[in-house]
């Protein structure tokens, strides 16, 4: 963090050391201003990847399950190194990003509270083998409420699944199948969607 250079709010701003940046996006997931809940102003977080904006992630989240039916519309936020693309199917839509640690926890809340999904699954690299070293660990800590930014307590944890399993093993698909079965046993969530401006 460095003193503000653009005259906007807050005393400091994030400055990227380009020589050290690997474009994982974990800093984006850590930024408290990277939230999809804004409706009256443009989404301009304190830091983001130039080719993968938070505004774009919000649009993709809003459109992801538009073609899904029933009470098991699952949105899978996945690391592009996790092999989770194979989870795409009738119940699940996969949105990949450089690292699952790029996902601000507020997106889980947004997808569920605004009825864009009946369940959210996070799929990262195999436990202990994160491509970007700490993406899985920090994401799990945010979900558990031990690392800021925290996933809000109001989020129904029974509508969230996490997989830190190798994609090629087929175990991710097993986690997804178990999650679908769990969602089917829950009361159907309200499908009233608030008006969100893109």
Q: How would you summarize this macromolecular structure in one to three sentences?
A:
The chain is an alpha/beta fold.
Structure write-up:
The protein is built from five helices and six strands; from the N terminus they run E-E-H-H-E-E-H-E-H-E-H. The chain is an alpha/beta fold. The chain has one domain. The two termini are 30 Å apart. 38% of the residues are buried.
Itemize the secondary structure elements and their pairings.
Layout (H helix, E strand, L loop, with lengths): L1 E2 L8 E2 L12 H5 L23 H10 L10 E6 L12 E6 L8 H8 L5 E5 L11 H10 L15 E4 L7 H14 L14
Parallel strand pairs: 3-4, 3-5, 5-6
Antiparallel strand pairs: 1-2
Using brief descriptors, characterize the structure shown.
13% strand; two-stranded antiparallel ribbon; 198 residues; globular; alpha/beta; 24% helix; 4-stranded parallel beta sheet
Using only C-alpha atoms, the radius of gyration works out to: 17 Å
* Strand runs, count: 6
Largest sheet: 4 strands, parallel
- Helical segment count: 5
Tell me the domain tally. 1
Shape: globular
Low-pLDDT windows of residues = none
The helix/strand series, from N terminus to C terminus, equals EEHHEEHEHEH
Structural class: alpha/beta
Distance between the termini: 30 Å
List the strand order in the largest sheet: 4-3-5-6
Provide the residue-averaged pLDDT: 89
Q: In percent, how helical is the residue content?
A: 10-25%
Percentage of β-strand residues = 5-15%
């Amino acid at each position: 963090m460095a003193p503000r250079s653009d005259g906007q709010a807050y005393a400091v701003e994030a400055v990227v050391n380009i020589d050290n940046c690997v474009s994982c996006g974990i800093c984006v997931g850590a930024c408290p201003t990277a939230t999809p809940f804004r409706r009256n102003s443009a989404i301009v977080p304190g830091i983001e990847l130039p080719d993968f904006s938070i505004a774009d992630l919000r649009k993709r989240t809003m459109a992801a399950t538009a073609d899904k039916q029933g009470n098991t519309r699952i949105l899978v936020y996945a690391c592009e190194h996790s092999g989770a693309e194979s989870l795409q199917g009738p119940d699940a839509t996969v949105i990949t990003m450089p690292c699952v640690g790029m996902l601000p926890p507020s997106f889980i809340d947004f997808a569920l509270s605004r009825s864009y999904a009946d369940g959210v699954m996070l799929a990262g690299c195999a436990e202990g083998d994160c491509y970007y070293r700490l993406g899985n660990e920090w994401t799990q800590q945010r979900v558990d409420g031990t690392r800021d930014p925290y996933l809000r307590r109001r989020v129904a944890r029974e509508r969230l699944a996490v997989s830190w399993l190798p994609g090629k093993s087929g175990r991710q698909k097993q986690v997804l199948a178990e999650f679908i079965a769990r969602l089917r046993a829950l009361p159907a969530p309200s499908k009233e969607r608030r008006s969100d401006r893109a």
